[in-house]
């Protein structure tokens, strides 16, 4: 206990310094999806490997076909468990840039109307601020005790926001180095500002980009209009046909493998005291728009979706241009639940689109990643241990929640390496991840570090598996 107390006060005393290190990382624009930022992704990996080496990890940057991995290892005491901590140093693009009130890669601390402080920058919450909570907890342990309470391997990737294409081959190729007793991930949310959470599920994801083409060039919309097929109309019709009037996805076979949440879990969700009005109201909405007859928690945690993330085509510049574009594009993602098979969903979608193509039209498909949903056991001893530790740190007991987002690799830790995964994160619903003015609460950054210190200390005492 004495050593945990000193580690916790070390964290408190060094908060400003840890913030400085996070700022250094946040200044690196490691946008994985945009090839222009390839060098910046490597710079972020180098920075992290350097920082972990400074703490005393055996750390290295490993090349892949895409952005590099950071892999670092520190042994623990004899007999203590060994954990694999996973996070991602890549971030989402910043657009629409004009809506940011400060530069996305010039982090600042801002004061909210209620006096609380928040770190504003792209990646502040997703996932640089979150992954640094773990790194800082390790640093404080090393500073105060010269060691870590359990063995720790750290894996940071730079392609999570692009579907983690290099990670599966990397897992396979480095099984021995990566194998641990459990995987820890800090890339999810709290329940609310006073209530930490352990996420017990994540949705899967399939990304598809489609390009519909008709005439061999852009056409004058008066000279050809009425006779020529318009790819933007065809694309819009396909998109409109994705859902029926009850909000269900119409792709044949889409719901294969979709189950219902057990009553006991539903009861637990009902007890969380979730307010649909507050959830929607915070972003200017009032009426749930998804599948009829489902609660918002079901809609976002346990039901699959089809969402258009972007549509491109025709003249969108200043003024006006009378044109029938030769092509139209859409980026569409599907969130998956239960046993939906990413490959089968992709095939079903492609067949659905192809069947709707009129004469003279062609379609190209480009895959953008695919991963299944994950569901973690509620009764895992890892979860029980983390729950005790979190409850010691926060005002309220840790909640067990679902999470609508995806972390593509999370399921593979179990499938490929046989490890239980523990999803503990300190994000908040209003952090605006993937949006302008992304932020991370200072309390998340501070108490997140303290939480990991407590969890590591607790795990070091042994987990009865
Ligand atoms: N950190 C998020 C996942 C998340 C979202 C957790 C919302 C908690 C609340 C993660 O980095 C993410 O955004 N993943 C992408 C993956 C995709 C691009 C392959 C996602 O879910 O869209
Ligand atoms: Mn993330």
Automatic annotation (TrEMBL):
GO molecular function per UniProt: dipeptidase activity
Limits of the Peptidase M20 dimerisation domain: 201-360
Keyword Metal-binding: yes
Listed EC numbers: 3.4.13.-
EC main group: hydrolase
UniProt keyword list: Dipeptidase, Hydrolase, Metal-binding, Protease
Record Pfam families: M20_dimer (PF07687), Peptidase_M20 (PF01546)
Keyword Zinc set for record: no
InterPro entries: Cyt/Met_Dipeptidase, Peptidase_M20, Peptidase_M20_dimer
Protein name per the record: Dipeptidase
Phylogenetic lineage: Bacteria, Pseudomonadati, Pseudomonadota, Alphaproteobacteria, Hyphomicrobiales
